[in-house]
Amino acid sequence: MSNALLSDRQAALAKVNDMVATKRHPWRIVFGVLAAVVVVWGALNLWLNPALDHATIFKYLTAESILTGVKNTIVLAVISMVIGTVGGYLVAVMRLSHNPVLRAIGFGYVALIRSIPLLVLILFMGNLALFWSRVDIVNPFNQDEVWIGWGMNDLVTPFIASILALAINEAAYMGEVIRSGLRSVDQGQREAATALGLGSGHTMSKVILPQAMRVILPPAGSQFVTMIKMTSLVSVIAGGDLLTEAQNIAATNLRTLELLVIASAWYLLVTGIATIGQSILEHRLERGQRRVSI
Amino acid sequence: MAPTTLLDISEVHKFYANHHVLQGVSLQVPEGTVACLLGPSGSGKSTLLRCINHLESIDAGRITMDGTTLAYEERNGQMHQRPRAKVDKQRQDIGMVFQHFNLFPHYTVLQNITLAPSLLKKASKAKATARALELLEKVGLADKRNAYPSSLSGGQQQRVAIARALAMEPKVMLFDEPTSALDPELVGEVLKVMKDLAAGGMTMIVVTHEMSFAREVADSVVVMDGGVIIESGTPAAIFDNPQQERTRDFLRHVR
Fold this sequence. Notes:
The complex is a heterodimer of chains A (294) and B (255).
Chain A: H1 3-14, H2 26-47, H3 54-61, H4 64-95, H5 100-115, H6 118-126, H7 128-131, E1 134-139, E2 142-151, H8 152-155, H9 158-184, H10 187-195, H11 200-230, H12 242-253, H13 256-284
Antiparallel strand pairs in A: 1-2
Helix pairs in contact in A: 3-13, 4-5, 4-9, 4-11, 4-12, 5-9, 6-9, 9-11, 10-11, 11-13, 12-13
Chain B: E1 5-16, E2 19-30, E3 34-38, H1 45-52, E4 60-65, E5 68-69, E6 72-75, E7 78-81, H2 84-91, E8 94-97, H3 109-121, H4 125-138, H5 154-166, E9 172-176, H6 184-199, E10 203-207, H7 211-217, E11 220-225, E12 228-233, H8 235-240, H9 245-254
Helix pairs in contact in B: 3-4, 3-5, 4-5, 5-6
Enzyme class (chain B): translocase
Keywords (chain B): Amino-acid transport, ATP-binding, Cell membrane, Membrane, Nucleotide-binding, Transport
Protein name (chain B): ABC-type polar-amino-acid transporter
């Protein structure tokens, strides 16, 4: 509030009786102080713990293999998220389709994938070679004639297996997020677009999706932040992510705690940037909408 | 010479599951005339309107515009639904205005109006914008071109919705209870735009509860009940000298 406004207010209030005092908020101060004490105490206690070797942390914080791990974690998360979102969109459209077979396929996919723990899925993908050792494209009339073929371990490297597992998993969850977003758009919007003669493609891309985005984006943002952290699971198949690299170093210098601190610091930074990006995007999507605060 | 029939609705039947909502409805709307559909709620008048632009499918009968069957085509002695792209093409000639406006909240007033013309008729952006501004002038909202729908009153939103439908230069305009969701003091501004439109020679089918509008503007008044047309005629005939007991009963209740 500007000073001019403030003095207007004071001038107006000076002339009236029974002026109501500004409401005080003592509990805000109490909670604020409490939180600050707990955070500072906790951080100091961890940081000053004699088990922690600070030199190791600083030595490896920006080590080349750690930075490679950070890069791989980001690449893994982004690629898996993009594939998972496209897949999720298809799942959502199937689940909302008039075609009962497509609806059943969408439902079955979500039900199946959500019931398999991601860790198990990652282990499956990392061990595909146990199912099929090779992928060969053969002459259909002469099965012995192999036109082109790959060994499974060359085709599906640990990195590819990680992307497959994360994307397949993500598609199921994003499918649900996108479905609820599409359903949140009033039926009248679709009718208005249809009545104007817009085809189903234009109706979706110009009318339904932009409005669904407002509902989709907040949970999709948390899905992405979760995804960044879930990439650490692929360390079980040596997926080349941040945790894999940290564990590799820890295996040689036995400084497990320090390398976990390093990994945590990087995860914190990357998810922090993702969270900021998410709020900027959400802000931009609020065009034309009244803000509501609860 | 009598004006040619633009819209010919013939023996249309429609079921919702086992509920027979339209039980053989026939109606001719000559070019440049206004038909008002009246009737108690659940009589099928909104459903009839929504069948014209195929927001609802029909189970029997046919609706033709300018002699072309809408949404369906005859093959091997049976009616089959046309492909979606063809139906969408036909819908471009049929403007529709909804009870709840259904403006696109993420677009400005101007963008609401230019969206369909620029996507479908491939009018240049400049041309579509010029036409949209003309229409906004006509509905008295030129100064709101950059506003978002949420900042407009209901009456203003409905006038934008009318402009949006007109931007496609339709041959007929369908109004589905256009003033039912409005505060009483905002009804007049919307009805005025509709009167101007009628005076300009637009063919209109209006589902409404505004009896004074129907009396003043309609060329024909159609009273529906229980999925059939129980009576139709000029406003004078229907309002001053209704022949059917159910019409008299309905008019008594709305007056």
